[in-house]
Amino acid sequence: MDLLFAYQQWPYAETFRISRSAQANSELFTVYLRDGGLVGRGECGLLPQYGQGREDVEAALIAAAPLLAEGATRARIAAEIANSSARNALDSALWDLECRRAGQDIWQLVGVPRRAEIEVDLTISVNPTAKMRDDALAAFGRGFRILKLKAGQDEVLERVEAIAAACPSARLIVDANEAWDIDTLNRLAEPLRALGVELIEQPLHHKADDALAGYGGAIPLCADESCSSIADLDRLSRLYQAINIKLDKVGGLTPGLELQAAAHARGLKVMLGCSGPTSLGAAPAYVLGTLCDYVDLDGPALLLDDRAQPMAYEQGKLLCFDSGLWGG
């Protein structure tokens, strides 16, 4: 197999702001695996929260090229390539190529029933209260009934209250992206519960979340930055009630499916998340999303443009991808 890849910046429709950063573009790598006349494609983003950048992903892909030339399997790539984002793009491309070799679609190969659509949330970036309220109203008007509200340290209750009043029937998730400490979490938990928030995502930094042993609130907590592999589950199951699986964090669809099954076996809820993918990156995530309790797969909806044969959103549902895009 021959490996080709390209680094690209895909602009967001609006600047995407969370507690620790603001991005005008989603930085992505597109991977192509060529085997004779067949080509498999994959995509990955960057993980700056773990200190990983463009150069790290590029170096990992270069290191993978001779392995793939020898016919490396998904298992070998998982064992020998450390960078999880690069592993995701390669895992996805290998699945896509295997589908084309076999003349079967991804649903047949992984043994997961195809779903025509999945209900997804839409993320509301950190902004002044009026802007967040207006963005939430616009999302609600497009049919999204689950809203993920990004939060920092300031005006959290004011912003959530404004959105809850504007969209009273919406389901609300608050994602702090590591911005709080345990005192802030305990102070906000009961007021947020009263406003209808049903899940709080990654309130504390992933290197300081043992403090969650002191959490006394009623809202379940979801581990995002703290969860990157099955090895994390024993510790996380004592601190959280849910985990967020992103294919870039865990290294692709293959380990993602394993992590989902292991988390559910421990009684944890599972969210399928994403890191600004186009539809090419969202397609393999969609497969995993059919098995999850929450689906935060709104990346393509937040971008200014998308791939050919893009996935579509209708009334808060993400429609299944066409096999011409990926996985067929």
Automatic annotation (TrEMBL):
Binds 1 Mg(2+) ion per subunit. Keywords: Isomerase, Magnesium, Metal-binding. CDD domains: L-Ala-DL-Glu_epimerase. SUPFAM superfamilies: Enolase C-terminal domain-like (SSF51604), Enolase N-terminal domain-like (SSF54826). Mg(2+) binds at residues 175, 201, 224. Its cofactor is Mg(2+). The active site is at 150 (proton acceptor), 246 (proton acceptor). GO terms for biological process: amino acid catabolic process; peptide metabolic process. The keyword Disulfide bond does not apply. Gene3D superfamilies: Enolase-like C-terminal domain, Enolase-like, N-terminal domain. It comes from the Bacteria. Signal peptide: none annotated. Its EC number is 5.1.1.-. InterPro entries: Dipeptide_epimerase, Enolase-like_C_sf, Enolase-like_N, Enolase_C-like, Mandel_Rmase/mucon_lact_enz_CS, Mandelate_racemase_C, Mandelate_racemase_N_dom. Residues 129-222 form the Mandelate racemase/muconate lactonizing enzyme C-terminal domain. GO terms for molecular function: magnesium ion binding; racemase and epimerase activity, acting on amino acids and derivatives. Pfam families: MR_MLE_C, MR_MLE_N. Belongs to the mandelate racemase/muconate lactonizing enzyme family. This is Dipeptide epimerase. The lineage of its organism: Bacteria, Pseudomonadati, Pseudomonadota, Alphaproteobacteria, Sphingomonadales.
